[in-house]
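Example record

The entry below shows one chain as it appears in the dataset: sequence first, then structure tokens.
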Amino acid sequence: MPLTLTPLPNIPLIQPGDDLARMILRALDTSGLQLETGDILVLTQKIVSKAEGRLVHLPTISPSPAALELAEKSGKDPRLAELILRESNAILRTRPGSVIVEHRLGFVCANAGIDQSNVAENGATCSEWVLLLPENPDKSAAQIRARLEAATPWQGQAGKRIGVMIIDSHGRAWRIGTVGMVIGLSGLPGIVDLRGTTDLSGYTLQITIVGAADELAAAASLVIGQAAEGTPVVHVRGFPYPLREGSLKELLRPKDQDMFR
């Protein structure tokens, strides 16, 4: 089966408290798509964070002494530096314009994943508002998946088994440019372990572990875009691996195997 990625139309600008599952079902109906077992829905972090009320108004933040010190080193707004500290397990690197952290969710990213693009509220200036990552993206993906699966039984048939991913744009230590990566998932594998299988030449693979969810996140990110495209949900059909329960944790490299720290 070919891999097909279809952006869902007519997803409105998300507000805190919005029902994402209901909006996705409406968009599927508009597009003429019916969910089938094996389908995957890919959502941007931004719409999940907005629906969960993760917007922060910077004038309400009082920077701590540690935030003031981080702001001086990085050139960041001290209030933003305070939020970076709150959202991080550890500060790993600091340079003017960027703070590399271990996010409290376990992955390494810039500026704790805090977003200032397309988040301003009620006509306010962009610099007044920021958007934090979801509190628990795996849980968010599981809740949305449960709602969507519950809506699929038709004429006595069992509900369809699908996957849901939440993705964000991350940089990488060894390459230039941002790439879509998964930060939360439910109902699909994060990795696919091919060790012990053979290649075309009959060689038994020794170390090959595929970051399948990140591969799909990167593909979906091409469809979603990085600026003003307005397509925050992508329907995927033809994912080449069997669906199973998965979580972000399986994608995180243990610290004792991390060559960049």
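Notes for this example: The chain has a mean pLDDT of 91. The radius of gyration is 20 Å.
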